[in-house]
Amino acid sequence: xxxxxxxxxxxxxxxxISQSKYYEKYVDMTLDEMIEAEVEEGNPFAIAxxxxxMENVTLVMELFKMADPKxxxxxxxxxxxxxxxxxxxxxxxxxxxxxxxxxxxEKLMELMESLPPEQLVKAALEMFSMPDLIKLMPEDQxxxxxxxxxxxxxxxxxxxxxxxxxxxxxxxxxxxGKSCDDQMSIEELMTKIMExxxxxxxxxxxxxxxxxxxxxxxxxxxENPELLQLFEPRAYTKIFEEQKDKIDIVKAAQVIDPEHxxxxxxxxxxxxxxxxxxxxxxxxxxxxxxxxxxxxxxxIMVM
Length: 303
Known about the structure:
Layout lengths: L7 H8 L3 H8 L4 H10 L3 H9 L4 H7 L5 H9 L3 H5 L7 H6 L6 H9 L3 H11 L2 H7 L2 H9 L5 H8 L4 H12 L9 H9 L3 H9 L3 H14 L9 H11 L2 H7 L5 H8 L4 H8 L4 H11 L1 H8 L2
Helix pairs in contact: 3-4, 5-22, 9-18, 11-17, 12-17, 14-15, 14-16
């Protein structure tokens, strides 16, 4: 049974009855029974009220004190999860994201890892600049990035042209075992790199000095930010765990598309899900009850 704090003074005024009449005749009746009794007595105010309860949002809000989060919570706690889910698309992204605070850090990271890659990257870039993010990426992730078939070899070669000669020479020497002439120009060194077979070229990229490797990855990612989706989800969440508090992660999660935030919030137990939904605007909450769940309003009426 749903037990909400009903505004009885409001009822008395709308029905035009005194408090003494209520205690004499209706104290043991439900609200629905009381209005019905007044209708049977020909009370025109009761007839009008009975009709308005089906269509006047402001009246229902006032009658059942919907502005009070405790009342909304009491209603929600008596609903199934499927019914509560109907409210989630109506919520603001920041209110949905705040619900993520109820998850442990471990569970939150698990949920973020299950996001579509572009959503995870959006959240990451809300917390870190692209240069900082790439500096924090483990080297094995940078290697996988550079090895990806999504990266055009000619584009890599274009950016290698901006390297200092000594770094290009190190790349060549690391796979050929032969020293490069100190007097070789960038063009000559690049010619040698282009002559490497595919395996040698791949290994030469792995052998780039860490700072230079980060520089190369950053240049490629700036040209095409979608390439950041090549990093493994766990690489991102490990950075989140090590570098940010949960409150920072939750705040950044506001940029995740609502449909994905909703899927995350649905993982909460029903009692916590109800708490999250109490953040919904009271008017929207009431309108949804009246339009989508008239049986819930009816149940409140017979409390």
